Amino acid sequence: MSHPIPTELTLHRRSRVLEVTFDDGTHFELPCEYLRVHSPSAEVQGHGPGQEVLQTGKQDVSIVEIRPVGHYGITPVFSDGHDSGIYTWETLYHLGAHREALWNDYLNKLKQAGYQRNE
């Protein structure tokens, strides 16, 4: 089964949004903060279920560089120094398609942990 592949990636530095268009016509606008807190890296996701690390204080993070990873993804370099997450095309598509639910889940986790986004 093949997954959609990006036909266009545009980083909007001022608004801190990565715009992604896929070959199936789907288009997503993914804020840098959203991408950072949902990084697929072990630093964020842990090495197994239940080992995730809640990311806080990332509302002002931006992407300073985008490194290609083969023909299957990218590694964004974030302004806070995080550069170890490989975002496959499938991961980017998933993050775009489920943005509202994933973002709300993140906000709920912040609240449960006693954090607010402006911290």
Brief overview:
The protein is α+β, with helices and mostly antiparallel strands and 119 residues long.
Elements, N to C (H/E)? EEEHHEEEHH
Tell me the radius of gyration. 14 Å
CATH architecture: 2-Layer Sandwich
CATH fold assignment: NE0471 N-terminal domain-like
Count of alpha and pi helical runs: 4
The structural domain count equals 1
Name the average pLDDT.
Answer: 94
Look at the structure and give the CATH class: Alpha Beta
- Helix- and strand-based class? alpha+beta
- As a percent range, the share of helical residues equals 25-40%
Query: Major beta sheet, specifics?
Result: 3 strands, antiparallel
The outline comes out as globular
Descriptive account of the structure:
There is one protein chain. By secondary structure, the protein is of the alpha+beta class. The chain has a single domain, classed as NE0471 N-terminal domain-like (2-Layer Sandwich), CATH 3.30.2020. It contains 4 helices and 6 strands; from the N terminus they run βββααβββαα. It has helices spanning 32-37, 42-45, 89-97, 99-112, and strands spanning 6-12, 17-22, 27-31, 63-69, 73-78, 87-88. β5 and β6 form a beta hairpin. It is globular, with a radius of gyration of 14 Å. The N and C termini lie far apart (42 Å).
